[in-house]
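Provenance

Sequences were taken from public entries as deposited. Structures were produced by running a predictor on each sequence independently, with no templates supplied. The record for NUDIX hydrolase from Jonesia denitrificans is shown for reference.
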Amino acid sequence: MTKHPAYRTRDAARVILLDANNNVLMLRGHDEHNPTRHWWFTVGGGLDAGESHRQAAVREVFEETGITLEEGDLVGPVMFRSAIFDFQAEHIVQHETFFVAHLDTAPVLSTTGWTDVEQRFVDDLAWLSVHDLTNATCEVFPENLTALITSMSTGWDGTVIRLRHDQSHTPH
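Predicted structure for NUDIX hydrolase:
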């Protein structure tokens, strides 16, 4: 009988931050065990004890970008995704709740709230267009992000997307 590695399960909140031109704020990270592998991913992270998904989303946006949002600024949840990945020598199943927030302008960004882990594996924080994401030379998570951004350009129709259990390597 094959022994399967133990997986740690965690809940996470992610935010698709869109500016007035429908550019999305993304982070680019790398795998410390495979430094040539990079990927773009949305702002967000794990819930702290006792925190709601909306509270975690607002906190993570501030910590990772310096942008202050209120819970009422979040649209959705617009999508749910479960992902399986390895990060920092752990096997993780992460259940992600995605929100959208629209910003009138692209504010000045700050990385002063990054944790030690984020400082080690995040390489960039940038506003990207759908064209940029479509033509990215590395992976983009979640995989249907460009379609979601395009559909959100005219407002949210109330449809919640549920992605299949995704085996990816999106950490955080």
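The first strand starts at residue 7 and ends at 18.
The beta strands are 7-18, 24-31, 34-46, 75-87, 90-102, 122-128, 139-141, 161-162, 166-167.
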